[in-house]
Design a protein that fits this description.
122 residues; mainly alpha; 73% helix; elongated
Length: 122
């Protein structure tokens, strides 16, 4: 019962966070409260997870919660990876743009036939 109360307080805090972030991250603002309410329900009525687990062919409710957690974590890691790759591409394009925009022409043009002389020690 103590853990259920602590989990409820934590999840209610996440709901407040999702509400505050709703304008900047609409997907978080819509899905996180739903997931938190499911967590609160599962914390206060743990037998319901066992019934849901039996509906989908899993033995125990705790196993169902673990499998859902693993799938959600994998999805989150994939989304974060895709965002990181996109940011790296944007950073590369920005660095390329800055380098090209600040580039200066060479002091004297080099012709294709005349190569700069090199000294050789003999």
């Amino acid at each position: 019962m103590i853990f259920s109360a602590l989990l409820t307080i934590f999840l209610l805090g996440l709901i407040v966070y999702a509400w505050l972030q709703q304008k900047q991250f609409p997907l978080v603002g819509r899905t996180l409260p739903f997931v938190c309410l499911l967590g609160i329900y599962a914390a206060w009525f743990p037998a319901s997870t066992s019934r849901a687990a039996s509906w989908v062919g899993i033995g125990r409710g705790v196993d169902l919660m673990l499998y859902v957690w693993i799938m959600a974590s994998g999805l989150l890691i994939l989304v974060l990876h895709l965002k990181l790759v996109a940011q790296q591409r944007q950073l590369t394009e920005l660095a390329r743009f800055v380098a090209i925009s600040r580039a200066e022409p060479p002091a004297r043009p080099l012709s294709a036939t005349a190569l700069p002389a090199t000294e050789t020690a003999t």
